[in-house]
């Protein structure tokens, strides 16, 4: 009875080793992807901040020119490229990638 369970446990440990070998390339790809995407997200955030300022200035100019619909459209675009719009969604997705990377690393080193 004891030796049957011992053989089963050895098979489970062997399967975990095989899974760790299979997961290793995915961890490497995630490490590189998260680093590159994090860098690009930082640059995109700065560009979106500048675009937000431009859209707000255009909306103010449109308001004084009497173009209400153009003003509203520019303010909506300014919100989308502001740190509360699309960059926030990108940051949320990047956090999910970080979580997946750390979960796979924990599995690899356990």
Automatic annotation (TrEMBL):
Keywords: Membrane, Transmembrane, Transmembrane helix
Highest taxon above the source species: Bacteria
The keyword Transmembrane appears for this protein: yes
Record field: transmembrane: 18-40, 47-66, 72-94
InterPro entries, per the entry: DUF5699 (IPR043753)
Pfam families: DUF5699 (PF18956)
Protein's name according to its UniProt entry: Succinate dehydrogenase
Protein species of origin: Hungatella hathewayi
Lineage: Bacteria, Bacillati, Bacillota, Clostridia, Lachnospirales
């Amino acid at each position: 009875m004891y030796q049957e369970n011992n053989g089963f446990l050895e098979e489970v440990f062997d399967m975990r080793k095989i899974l760790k070998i299979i997961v290793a390339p995915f961890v490497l790809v995630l490490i590189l992807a998260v680093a590159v995407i994090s860098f690009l997200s930082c640059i995109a955030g700065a560009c979106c901040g500048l675009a937000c300022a431009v859209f707000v200035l255009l909306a103010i100019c449109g308001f004084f020119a009497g173009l209400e619909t153009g003003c509203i459209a520019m303010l909506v675009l300014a919100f989308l490229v502001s740190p509360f719009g699309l960059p926030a969604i990108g940051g949320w997705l990047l956090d999910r990638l970080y979580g997946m990377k750390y979960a796979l690393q924990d599995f690899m080193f356990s």
